[in-house]
Amino acid sequence: MEEILLKCAVVDDSSLQRLSIVKLIKDHPHLKLVAEYNNAIETKNGLLDNETDLIFLDIEMPILSGFELLDDLPNKPQIIFVTGKTKYAFKAFDYDAVDYIHKPVNKERFNNAVSKAINLFKLKHQNATPEDEDFIFVKSNLKNRKVYLNRLKYIQALGDYVKFITEKDNFVVLATMKSFEKQLPSDRFLRIHKSYIVNLEKIERYNSKNIEIDKQKLPLSRHKKNNLVEALSAIQ
């Protein structure tokens, strides 16, 4: 198996904090530092020139926050948030973060987060087949679970959790609908209701109030009906 070497960038407005992360990166055998940035604007421009697999990202920065930076990136590397505040941990789920580390960072916690990034990199890039390209990873029971899109029927919101209904089984994860609405291809999946995102190819029938998937009726929001008709027409 080819040795894994993740190209890394550190983004933090504090030079001391950057220095501590840089040292940990340089001491790690599977990481290579390619850039340091002290603000989000510099990072956005720098990522155009530096191929990056993993970013160690602060959240509270001048001008643009770490979250706002990610909102502006069309192609996101893996993200490990490194911050002095714990209050953003839940929001980090919306950005599919690999991990969320609280400052000050110790070596053991750092290496644990990096291990997650390395494992995810292996899953995505090694021994890939055409079928492997058509999936997303979902964090379930502290592990990254592969979900093939052609087997996913629909997703249901359950408070702070999201339920996945697939052809094989059902499972629940701690996440938000918004995070998966961003990940799923819009030409194949549609949010038909505040609590449901459906696989358009799995819809068997519909009317003005419901859609039906595998004999299961799901509510259709009135203002989503036109979107549904257009989306189904596009895939026919």
TrEMBL record:
PROSITE patterns found in the cross-reference section: HTH_LYTTR, RESPONSE_REGULATORY
Top-level taxon of the source organism: Bacteria
Matches recorded under Gene3D superfamilies: 3.40.50.2300, LytTr DNA-binding domain
Modified residues (4-aspartylphosphate): D58
GO molecular function, one term: DNA binding
Residue intervals of the HTH LytTR-type domain: 154-234
Limits of the Response regulatory domain: 7-118
Transmembrane segments: none
Keyword DNA-binding: yes
Record keywords: DNA-binding, Phosphoprotein
Alphabetized SMART domains for the sequence: LytTR, REC
Protein name: LytTR family DNA-binding domain-containing protein
Source organism per UniProt: Autumnicola psychrophila
